Amino acid sequence: MIWIRADANETIGSGHVMRCLSIADALKRQGQQVCFLTADENAAGLLEARGQAFRVLHTDYRRMEGELEALEELLADGGFFLADSYFVTAAYLDRVRERLPVGYLDDMGRRDLAADLLIDYNIFAEARLYEGCKAAEFLLGPEYAPLRAEFAGNVCETRDRASRVLITTGGGDRYNLAGQLLEKALAHPGTACLEYHVVSGAYNVHLAELKALERRHGNLRIYSNVSDMCGLMRDSDIAVTAGGSTMYELSALGVPMVCFSFVDNQERIVEGFVERGLVGFGGNYLLQGEAMAAEAAEAIAAAVAATNQTYVDALKNAGKFDAEAQKQAAQKALAACLQSISPAAQRFIESAYGDIREYLTTRIEAEVRKQKGEAALALSVPMFGELVSTVETTVEETEE
């Protein structure tokens, strides 16, 4: 028997249970028996919907050592025990390990746990993060991400136009970030006319507010209890997501992302993707509060503008798409961007991508090459709203 210890509720969301369900499905395909152990009934709906056996311990998910007595009888027949909770303590794992081998699914670089197997599939996970850790064996890096079977073997599709935006904030959205983001995006001139497909998690207490917003906007659709998340992602041109396993699923499908964080454990994941130039940065709610929604809306506008090639489209429509006009406009755009981009944005670009002039020049020239039919450069999503608005302004001035 494989025992999986994980919880879900409106405070911690559903991520722990959902990724463990992916592992459970893979184990059952190999003929293993799997049983989830949960502190309370909150995860029952998720587990029942997937036909997964489970037992409720009737304990406090935040005080896991208090459940050890209840576990002793359950684990008497042995097997393997996989824990996925930030509330696990070293003493807890030591006691369980006296009865059977133990695995731990980690996001936080914990070195205090003496597990038989430690799994950290995050983009930042590497051996030096766990120097001094007493775990017997490690599985580190995105190659061990527990993706569902439907995410395997997909061919990434590059699209010239972006119109469908997927927004997902996880199983629980305590700050109503989806609602805050929609209010800003639906009022933003660069994003108001896009289609928005918003996934409301199982523990989102703001579903009624989102539904009310849906009734006021014909280009907004709210989903709950989604059965085909892979299909919904695949149909999206751009995704706006909180940090977590969803980022690895979107990566498997090749969907451009704008990512943000609103709890501590999401920050390192988002930073890891941003530092490698893989996603656009939508902000950090813990640091920015409600201002994050405005930044995320700008990031969406920037991503859409980059995908839609608005810079070169404007030149073509004006009949000025000759080499000299392109050169002059690009030079003006670069100068205007450097002058108007805030110091904070400049620091971010330089820390993430190196020389800012080279970064901006590459992005502008990439759009020109695409419209001329030459081999396209790899255009990463993270272009700031102020950069795009500056380019658009420069194009207008060039046309005059």
Briefly characterize the structure.
With 400 residues, this protein is an alpha/beta fold. Helices cover 43% and strands 15% of the residues. The strands form two sheets. The chain has a seven-stranded parallel sheet, sandwiched between helices. The chain has a six-stranded parallel sheet with strand order 10-9-8-11-12-13, with helices on both faces.
The strand line-up of the biggest sheet is 3-2-1-4-5-6-7
Helix count, DSSP H or I runs of 4 or more residues: 16
Question: What is the 3D form?
Answer: globular
Main beta sheet: 7 strands, parallel
Return Rg in Å.
23 Å
Order of SSEs, N→C?
EHEHEHEHEEEEHEHEHEHEHEHHHHHHH
Summarize the structure in words.
Helix content is 43%, strand content 15%. The protein is α/β, with parallel strands linked by helices and 400 residues long. It has a seven-stranded parallel β-sheet with strand order 3-2-1-4-5-6-7, sandwiched between helices. The protein has a six-stranded parallel β-sheet with strand order 10-9-8-11-12-13, sandwiched between helices. Helix 11 crosses helix 16 and helix 13 (323-340) runs antiparallel to helix 15. Residues 370-400 have low confidence and may be disordered.
Can you lay out the helices and strands and say which pair or pack?
Layout: E1 2-6, H1 15-29, E2 34-38, H2 44-49, E3 54-56, H3 68-74, E4 80-84, H4 90-97, E5 102-105, E6 117-120, E7 138-140, E8 164-168, H5 177-185, E9 195-200, H6 207-216, E10 220-224, H7 229-234, E11 238-242, H8 245-253, E12 257-261, H9 264-275, E13 280-284, H10 285-288, H11 291-308, H12 310-317, H13 323-340, H14 343-353, H15 356-372, H16 385-399
Parallel strand pairs: 1-2, 1-4, 2-3, 4-5, 5-6, 6-7, 8-9, 8-11, 9-10, 11-12, 12-13
Helix pairs in contact: 5-11, 11-16, 12-16, 13-15, 13-16
